[in-house]
C-alpha cells in the first residue's frame, strides 16, 4: 500500500506542459517507452512526436538507454489496467524552443528542409518547426511542380513569425535574388565593351539567344548570331552550349548586355578578293528580290546584286517577272568592292544579244522623234549702203 501511494504521489508531480527528462526503456512497434526521471512515471514517445518524416525509422532517432528531453502532452490511462502513463513529445518541445528562437529574426537567412508539397506552396521544417513557403516565393520564376523540393535542404529568408497564430513564412526567392544581385555586380565589374568572354546559352527566343555570363544574361540578337542572313537562333546555337561572345554594349543600370557571336568569327568578306574577281563566272542562288534588281548569294554570307538592267537584254519591268527566290542562276562578276561589301553581277552578260528583225528596226526608227532639219548657214554681205539695192541683189542666188 505504501508503494502504491508513493506511485500516486509521483504521478501528481507530472502535469501536461511540463518539460521533463526521460530515459528510453524500450523501442518497439514504432514507439519508445520511457520513464520520466525523478518520478517513476512512464511515458510513450511515438514516431510522430519525434519527427515530421512519417517514413522514418524510429530506431534512427532513439534507442534503449538514451536520455531525451521531452514535453508532457497529456495523461493516458490504460483501458484494461489502472496503469497511468503520459504521452510525451520531443518534436513539439523542439518546436517550442524554435519559436522562442525565431522571435525577432525576420529578415534572417536560415537553412530549411522541404517536407511536403501543399496547396499554394511548400511545407518546410526548421529546427523541428513547420514553416511555409508560398509558391510565389519559391523561385524567381513560378514553380508548378513543388515536389522536386521535398527532401532538399536550402536557404530561405524568414519573412514572418507569429507564434500565437502558428505562422512561420519564409522566402527562397529573396535569397536567390540577393545572390543574383551580388553575382551581377561582380560580373558587371569585370565586363568591358569590346572584350571577348565565354558564356552558356541559357534560353532561345524568336529574336535571339540569351547567354549566361555567370550571373548576368546577355542578349545575342538574331542579327548578331551569324554572318548569314535570316537565320533562326535554334539553327545556330542550342541551350546549354558554351559559346564565345563579344561584348557590344553594357547598361548596368538596366541590367542589359548586348553580345555578338558573329563578331568573334571570320567574316565572309575577309579575303574575298582571293575568292572572287571581276570576270569570274559562278553559280549562285537568288536570295531576295527588290524593285531595282536581285540579290544572289555567290559565297556563304555574300550576296551580290544583279541590277535590273543586268538581268536580260530584253526590257524587264520587275525582277519578279523573270526570277524567283531560291532559283539557281549563273552570273558573271562585274565588280568586287570589299571595302563597301558590294559585288556587282550580271546575267545578261552571259547571254547572246538577240538579233533585231526588220520590223523591230523599223518600229524603233519610227518610235524615235524626228529632229527638225537645220538650214545651211550662209554668210551674206550687205551692200555698203542701203540705197539702190533690191531683193534680187540680196537673194539673187536662190532659186524660187
Write the layout of secondary structure elements.
Elements: H1 2-11, E1 19-28, E2 31-36, E3 41-46, E4 67-77, E5 84-89, H2 91-102, E6 109-118, E7 121-126, E8 129-134, E9 153-162, E10 167-171, H3 172-190, E11 196-205, E12 208-212, E13 217-221, H4 233-236, E14 242-251, E15 256-260, H5 272-275, E16 281-290, E17 293-299, E18 302-307, E19 328-337, E20 342-346, H6 358-367, H7 391-395
What is the gist of this entry?
This protein is an alpha+beta fold. It is 16% helix and 37% strand.
Name some characteristics of this structure.
disordered C terminus, alpha+beta, 400 residues, 16% helix, 5-stranded mixed barrel, rod-shaped
Q: What share of residues is helical?
A: 10-25%
Radius of gyration: 47 Å
What's the quaternary structure here? single chain
Q: Mind describing the biggest β-sheet?
A: 5 strands, mixed, barrel
- Characterize the overall form: rod-shaped
Q: What's the rounded overall pLDDT mean?
A: 84
Number of strands: 20
Number of helices: 7
- Helix/strand class: alpha+beta
Q: What order do the helices and strands follow?
A: HEEEEEHEEEEEHEEEHEEHEEEEEHH
Distance between termini? 176 Å
> Poorly predicted ranges (pLDDT <50, ≥5 residues)?
378-400
Percent strand equals: 35-45%
Amino acid at each position: 500500500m505504501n508503494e502504491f501511494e508513493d506511485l500516486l504521489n509521483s504521478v501528481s508531480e507530472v502535469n501536461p506542459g511540463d518539460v521533463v527528462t526521460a530515459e528510453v526503456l524500450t523501442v518497439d512497434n514504432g514507439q519508445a517507452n520511457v520513464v520520466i526521471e525523478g518520478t517513476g512515471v512512464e511515458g510513450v514517445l511515438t514516431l510522430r512526436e519525434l519527427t515530421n518524416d512519417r517514413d522514418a525509422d524510429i530506431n534512427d532517432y532513439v534507442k534503449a538507454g538514451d536520455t531525451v528531453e521531452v514535453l508532457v502532452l497529456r495523461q493516458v490511462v490504460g483501458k484494461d489496467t489502472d496503469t497511468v502513463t503520459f504521452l510525451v513529445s520531443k518534436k513539439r518541445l523542439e518546436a517550442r524552443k524554435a519559436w522562442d528562437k525565431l522571435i525577432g529574426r525576420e529578415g534572417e537567412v536560415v537553412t530549411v528542409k522541404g517536407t511536403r508539397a501543399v496547396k499554394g506552396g511548400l511545407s518546410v521544417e526548421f529546427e523541428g518547426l513547420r514553416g511555409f513557403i508560398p509558391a510565389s516565393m519559391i523561385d524567381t520564376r513560378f514553380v508548378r511542380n513543388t515536389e522536386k523540393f521535398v527532401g532538399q535542404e536550402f536557404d530561405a529568408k524568414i519573412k514572418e513569425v507569429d507564434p500565437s497564430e502558428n505562422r512561420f513564412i519564409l522566402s527562397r526567392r529573396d535569397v536567390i535574388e540577393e545572390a543574383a544581385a551580388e553575382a551581377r555586380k561582380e560580373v558587371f565589374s569585370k565586363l568591358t565593351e569590346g572584350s571577348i568572354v565565354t558564356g552558356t546559352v541559357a534560353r532561345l527566343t524568336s529574336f535571339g539567344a540569351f547567354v549566361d555570363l555567370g550571373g548576368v544574361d546577355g542578349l545575342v540578337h538574331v542579327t548578331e548570331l551569324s554572318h548569314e542572313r535570316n537565320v533562326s537562333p535554334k539553327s545556330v546555337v542550342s541551350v546549354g552550349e558554351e559559346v564565345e561572345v563579344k561584348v557590344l554594349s553594357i547598361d548596368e543600370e538596366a541590367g542589359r548586355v548586348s553580345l555578338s557571336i558573329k563578331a568573334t568569327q571570320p567574316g565572309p568578306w575577309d579575303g574575298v578578293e582571293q575568292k572572287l574577281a571581276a570576270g569570274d563566272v559562278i553559280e549562285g542562288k537568288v536570295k531576295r528580290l527588290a524593285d531595282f534588281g536581285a540579290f544572289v548569294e555567290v559565297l556563304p554570307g555574300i550576296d551580290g546584286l544583279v541590277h535590273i538592267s543586268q538581268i536580260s537584254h530584253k526590257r524587264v519591268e520587275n525582277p519578279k517577272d523573270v526570277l524567283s527566290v531560291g532559283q539557281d542562276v549563273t552570273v558573271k562578276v562585274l565588280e568586287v568592292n570589299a571595302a563597301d561589301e558590294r559585288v556587282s553581277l550580271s546575267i545578261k552578260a552571259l547571254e547572246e544579244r538577240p538579233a533585231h528583225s526588220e520590223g523591230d528596226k523599223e518600229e524603233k526608227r519610227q518610235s524615235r522623234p524626228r529632229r527638225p532639219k537645220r538650214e545651211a548657214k550662209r554668210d551674206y554681205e550687205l551692200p555698203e549702203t542701203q540705197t539702190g539695192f533690191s531683193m534680187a541683189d540680196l537673194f539673187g542666188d536662190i532659186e524660187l
